[in-house]
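pasting for ref. prot 1 ->
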Amino acid sequence: MKKIILRKGKEESLGRFHPWIFSGAIHHTEGDKLEEGDIVEVLASDGRFLAIGHWQIGSIAVRVLTFKKQRIDQAFWQKRLAAAFDVRKTIGVAGRADNDIYRLVHGEGDNLPGLVIDIYAATAVMQAHSVGMHVCRNELAQALREVMGESLKAIYYKSETTLPFKAQLGQENGFLYGESNDDVARENGLAFHIDWLKGQKTGFFVDQRDNRALVEHYSKGRKVLNMFCYTGGFSVYAMRGGAELVHSVDSSAKAVELVDANMELNFPGDNRHEAFAEDAFKFLEEMQEKYNLIILDPPAFAKHKDALHNALRGYTKLNAKAFEKIQPGGILFTFSCSQAVNKDQFRTAVFTAAAMAKRKVRILHQLHQPADHPINIYHPEGEYLKGLVLYVE
């Protein structure tokens, strides 16, 4: 196995079981020339064994797979995937007749850094975020079939946009196992079309399941506005919650088509819902309808720390407009999925927006990602989804 030797004193984070090794910590390599995706053994400057992981060109040079000396083979992948599946059964999202949408693997949170697997009924959508996981994709698919058994009919690989373009891997999306044209799956008894072929992420925002259920709880008799609606998850839950009306807004006409299709699946012919393909800021500025429940779930405003300042300004501007427009006694659900924005920064942006709008605001709930998106206790960077539910006088 090829070896990476760290600079003196750079092994401390591995002693705390942090799963990343940055390029600046590496002193030299031993063995044949390293290729992206190689499995490497990591040693301290004095030769002590530290970890085994996937090597990749970039700031994060090694993603640690194990802190033990062991073979990374089919049995290893199968054991890790089985452990992840056990967690999903334990928390109650897998094995339910009314719910077959959940995240099976959440990268570092499941000790499989660089890998995401979402389950949609009998189809698994696999996404690699590291070259190493891309190289291992067929082994992972075979291990997944062993773990999931007959419940799994197809595995779709979707990594064209998540792998580093400079790696020149020639990766293509497509089925690694089986094939499926059935794009309907169920979340908490509601049906959704899942566009794993061309949709964002793996085809659905699995991470908002619990927060959608909370929107349902607050929707009875309210006029609901769902901004950045994508496929309309929050909107469908609001409809089931008894909303007086629900309006869904997204800049993508394709997303709006999916919202309408999901409404037809669950509430055929129900005229309480209407969708609009418009820019969010423009819609908020010009809207005439008086809403008393607004959901702001924008795409990540900051993909990296260099964009942090502009992102916080964006969150402040967006929330200020919502505070300005929402009816007295209204409820605002507001989110950030930007990993570069921490909870305190997001909260400060929202507080600033409330002050700009001169509204009295109470925090009802502080929201985060659900249990099938677990956070490795040694990897706090895995906590990315932040949300607040606010009562606005």
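and prot 2 ->
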Amino acid sequence: MDDIKILDTVERYIRGEMRPDERLHFENLRKTNAEIDQLVVEHTLFLQQLNHFGERKELSSTLNELHTDLTEQGKIDSMKLKGKAKVVYLWKRYKRVAAIAASIAGITTITVTMLVNYLSPKAESAKVRELVNQVNNLDARTKQLDTKIDKVDKKSTKPVINTPARYNGTGFLIDGKGYLVTNSHVVKNSKNVYIQNNKGEQFRVKVVQLDLAKDVAILKIEDADFKPISYIPYGIRKAKTDIAEPIYTLGFPRNDEIVYGEGYLSAPTGFNGDTLSCQIAVAANPGNSGGPVFNHNGEVIGILSTKEVQAEGAVFAIQSKYIYQAIEELKKDTSYQKIKINSSSSVRGMDRVQQVNKIQDYVFMVKGD
């Protein structure tokens, strides 16, 4: 029996295509011929590896088609992805073509190798083992590539939240476990609220406290991608601030870019003597609402709230002591007993540029729909 017929017989045996008498005869042959038995074992492994490789490619192709269909239906806006996310999308978009080409090339190589090995006069089972090893190495490299793609995918292709926002504002962390403060008027009419930092990272949040009278809202980040922060560099001041003390703000009056503003405390009270707020002299726009107002020590002295249209340049901020009151009210719910507000500032004594560099990552754009 020549090599081609042997291979054909082995494959028929593995696939269960023999008649009972043929199968009995072949099994007796395996018992008496070690080389035939070894060939059956190696060829079985070889076919399993081919099937496994094909199944992985089929699954990958199916996932790719699903992603492409969702994109074409407008449910995923992949063209707005940036950086690594866009690279991964383009890989997924055209991976099927590449996979088909790679599969054809791989199968052709394997087929040619098999024919050369088995048509060669010196064909031995060692060559089969070498071929199986090559297939195993190819499958191992494929798995490694898939793992790398999965890691990049999980890290970089989190769906971008593209829901048009009706309300934009600013918020800032007051507890590293994911609690933020902003104005209540920024989020009060929103069904869904999310935040975005200066790096473009987005997180979904939940409104857990809403005080319309004081215009203060407490938000809680509820997103698996958010990692708790061990400390916040700025403190929340309890005492009043003196008139003429230098102050500065950080906020998002324009989309996707944090903006710095500076000025001073104009009056210890707000419009018409309102004791809830204080008046500050600083440039502000609607997107600044809910943003932090810092003194020269890097302490939050207020939440930028409103701009009085009746008085040119008059901007007001809710006094920071009302942040503490909002938290105490929230703590009446036992689910929020562990909230802790930092009252001391670790950026005290730094120059303004250093303070802003330390603080800006804790200030977020707040969007609601």
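Confidence is low (pLDDT under 50) at residues 119-123.
Residues 163 and 369 are 7 Å apart (CA to CA).
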